[in-house]
C-alpha cells in the first residue's frame, strides 16, 4: 500500500511540473526556443556602399586623431553575446601596424577580420570569407594591403635572386609571385598594389559562392592600401563593365 501511494504521489507531482513547464513555454514569444545564438541578432544588413562609407569615415577620424572608439562598452558586449552581424569583411595583412579595427575606428562585432602575411588568399581564408557572407550577412569585402609590406618585399627579393624562402614562408612567396612577375622593374609599392588587385580578382571570380553574389550586386569586393606614413587608406573599386 505504501509503495502504491508513493508512486501515485510521484506521478501527481510530475504531472504538475509538466503542466507548469508547458505553460512557461507557451507564454514565450514564437521562435524563442528554436533561435540559434549565432544568428540571434536580427539587425538589417548594411549595403556595400553604406559599409564602404562607414570605413572611409572611420579612417578619416583615425587620420585626424578624432577617434570615437565605438561599440566597445559593456552594453555592446552583452548584445554580441547573442550573436554577431559584422557590416564588412576585411582580409588584411598580419603586420602588427595594420589592425583594421584601429585603422577604421570600429569596435566589437563591426568587422569580420581575416589576417595573414601579405593578405594572400588560400582555402582557409576563402572559407572564412564565404562564411561571413553566407551566414553573417556581410556584403562588403575589403582586401587591405599596406605600404612597405614585408611579405611582399621578401617575395620580391626571393624571386629576383632565384632563391627559395625557408620553411612555410615559401608558400607566401608562391602566392605573391604573380604580382612580382607583373611588376618587374617597379618598386615594392607597385607590387603591393598588384598583389591587392590579384586577391580582389581572386575573390570576385571565386566559385561557387562569391562570383554569383558579385555578379548580382549582392556583395562588392574592393581593394584598399594603407599608407604607414599618413595613416590614410585609399580604396580601389572595380567598375562594372
> How many DSSP helices?
9
Taking pLDDT < 50 over at least 5 consecutive residues as the criterion, the unreliable ranges are 1-41
Summarize the helix and strand pattern as letters.
Answer: HHHEHEHEHHHHEE
Number of strands: 5
Can you summarize the main beta sheet?
5 strands, mixed
> What Rg do the Cα atoms give?
25 Å
Structural commentary:
With 241 residues, this protein is of the alpha/beta class. The chain has two domains: 1-34; 37-236, Carbonic anhydrase (Beta-carbonic Anhydrase, Chain A), CATH 3.40.1050. Helix content is 48%, strand content 12%. The chain has nine helices and five strands, in the order αααβαβαβααααββ. A five-stranded mixed β-sheet has the order 2-1-3-4-5, sandwiched between helices. β1 (88-92), α4 (100-103) and β2 form a beta-alpha-beta unit. α6 (150-160) crosses α7 and α7 (169-182) packs across α8. The longest helix is centred in the N-terminal third of the chain and has 26 residues, at 2-27. The chain is globular.
List keywords for this structure.
241 residues; alpha/beta; Beta-carbonic Anhydrase, Chain A; 9 helices; 5 strands; 12% strand; globular; disordered N terminus
Short summary of the structure?
The protein has 241 residues and is α/β, with parallel strands linked by helices. 48% of the residues lie in helices and 12% in strands.
How are the SSEs placed, and which strands pair?
Elements: H1 2-27, H2 48-64, H3 74-80, E1 88-92, H4 100-103, E2 111-115, H5 123-134, E3 140-146, H6 150-160, H7 169-182, H8 188-204, H9 210-216, E4 220-226, E5 233-236
Parallel strand pairs: 1-2, 1-3, 3-4
Antiparallel strand pairs: 4-5
Amino acid at each position: 500500500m505504501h509503495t502504491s501511494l508513493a508512486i501515485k504521489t510521484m506521478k501527481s507531482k510530475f504531472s504538475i511540473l509538466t503542466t507548469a513547464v508547458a505553460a512557461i513555454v507557451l507564454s514565450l514569444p514564437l521562435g524563442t526556443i528554436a533561435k540559434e545564438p549565432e544568428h540571434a541578432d536580427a539587425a538589417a544588413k548594411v549595403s556595400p556602399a553604406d559599409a564602404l562609407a562607414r570605413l572611409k569615415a572611420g579612417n578619416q577620424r583615425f587620420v585626424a586623431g578624432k577617434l570615437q572608439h565605438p561599440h566597445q562598452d559593456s552594453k555592446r558586449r552583452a548584445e554580441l553575446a547573442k550573436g554577431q552581424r559584422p557590416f564588412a569583411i576585411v582580409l588584411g595583412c598580419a603586420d602588427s601596424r595594420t589592425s583594421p579595427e584601429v585603422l577604421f575606428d570600429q569596435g566589437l562585432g563591426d568587422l569580420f577580420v581575416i589576417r595573414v602575411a601579405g593578405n594572400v588568399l588560400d582555402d582557409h581564408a576563402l572559407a572564412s570569407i564565404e562564411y561571413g557572407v553566407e551566414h553573417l550577412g556581410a556584403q562588403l569585402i575589403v582586401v587591405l594591403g599596406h605600404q612597405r609590406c614585408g611579405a611582399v618585399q621578401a617575395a620580391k627579393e626571393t624571386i629576383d635572386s632565384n632563391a627559395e624562402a625557408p620553411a612555410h614562408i615559401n608558400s607566401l612567396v608562391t602566392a605573391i609571385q604573380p604580382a612580382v612577375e607583373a611588376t618587374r622593374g617597379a618598386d615594392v609599392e607597385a607590387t603591393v598594389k598588384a598583389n591587392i588587385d590579384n586577391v580582389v580578382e581572386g575573390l570576385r571570380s571565386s566559385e561557387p559562392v562569391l562570383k554569383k553574389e558579385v555578379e548580382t550586386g549582392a556583395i562588392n569586393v574592393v581593394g584598399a592600401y594603407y599608407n604607414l606614413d599618413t595613416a590614410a587608406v585609399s580604396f580601389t573599386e572595380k567598375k562594372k563593365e
